């Protein structure tokens, strides 16, 4: 993988973080970029030839599909409003033989009620189709398919839509969108010479409102707050999350908060405890220095891998366990 493609891939990953500022609760997550090639596909049921996790260069791993395959996500019923985010790289083979199709339905066995597909027309264009029970919205847009792309699908307040690389492409009104019990992806690669590569998939639902959660429950988990990889630096794309929290605190000067950092189980207990502490301190530092909150209203501590919310054996579980919690004092 060239440096330009690596930069684009990392930029897309960061853009997904920025988009997630409006979506919070994590429903499904799988990230292939940092896992070994021997890692099992524990988050998916595979129908077809099992894809391989490959080293795409510069230490970045991706799931590679050389043939037709369907991957069924292991999840339960999705809420009416959700965002599905995914990153792909198309192979340099015959473009008319490649396509990416996200399917949504009440069960895999009964087939899709609606779907979102992307397929290249040539190296500078892609065709995007939103198909709701046979009624199709079909759009062709300019896009450099030599670079990684973010293909996102969403349902919100009776609308279904698709965005590519952060830009809305198509949406339809669907006042009674079919309930989604099953999500699966069909990756078509008839050429077989160059794989379609998938880097990450994440499904989230709208978060709870910070102020309502603090006032009614006394605590709030900031699912959308991210840090630069393996550091305690708050990602620039997450600053809007802290800005909204700061604005709520300015409006309610009586509130004092403890900021608690948690981690997954990767690393020693000492390492995870220290990283979680530094991340909590970093959040406090940003709220004080960038948003001018009184430091006396905030305290910070780290709890490492204690009080985990989910199993650390899966990517989804680890992502849930890496979190910042605000607790009313």
Strand content: 35-45%
Distance between the termini: 49 Å
Q: What is the radius of gyration?
A: 21 Å
Tally of contiguous helical segments: 5
Supply the helix-strand structural class: alpha+beta
Mean pLDDT: 82
Shape verdict = globular
Structure description:
With 329 residues, this protein is an alpha+beta fold. It folds into two domains: 3-205, Jelly Rolls (Sandwich), CATH 2.60.120.200; 210-328, 2-Layer Sandwich (60s Ribosomal Protein L30, Chain: A). The protein has helices at residues 3-19, 210-217, 239-251, 269-289, 315-321, and strands at 25-31, 44-48, 52-55, 61-65, 69-73, 82-89, 98-105, 114-122, 125-132, 135-142, 149-156, 159-164, 167-173, 182-189, 196-205, 219-221, 257-262, 298-302, 323-328. The strands form three sheets. Strands 1, 3, 4, 6, 11, 12, 13 and 15 form an eight-stranded antiparallel beta sheet that branches. A seven-stranded antiparallel beta sheet has the order 2-5-14-7-8-9-10, with no helix packed on it. The chain is globular and about 60 Å long. The protein starts with a helix and ends with a strand.
